[in-house]
Specification:
There is one protein chain. The chain is mainly alpha-helical. It has one domain (2-119). It has 6 helices and no strands.
């Protein structure tokens, strides 16, 4: 079980690295970051819930991502201050966009298929 967890951890770290790199390279669309965010959340749930089904992680990551995106509609002063920090901006986002929900679905489904067909980590 420990080796499965380490694979998910390594994949999550790689996704973080690629996501940060995507923000630094000129010409890469911002929606790539939303897709990678969803991939990271999926593999984070796989890391935490190692014995659960892959579909459980899929549904939980979609729910989590949608909650974060919808949470962007809330505009409290203290929350805006957190979003203005680098880490707060990366985690909580800046503003609600419908296209972000589509990107989150694409990223989560892509992560599921990578997990199922490429990593092939079974119980």
């Amino acid at each position: 079980m420990k080796s499965k967890r380490s694979v998910y951890f390594i994949v999550a770290i790689l996704v973080v690295f690629v996501g940060l790199l995507s923000r630094k390279i000129i010409g890469i669309s911002l929606f790539i970051g939303d897709i990678l965010y969803a991939v990271l959340i999926y593999f984070g749930f796989r890391f935490l819930l190692i014995d659960s089904k892959k579909t459980t992680s899929l549904l939980l990551s979609l729910l989590f991502c949608f909650c974060i995106e919808l949470f962007q509609l809330i505009q409290f002063d203290w929350l805006i201050a957190i979003r203005k920090t680098t880490l707060g901006h990366y985690i909580l986002g800046q503003g609600f966009l419908l296209i972000d929900l589509i990107c989150l679905v694409i990223g989560t489904i892509a992560a599921y298929f990578i997990d199922y067909y490429v990593l092939k980590i079974n119980k």
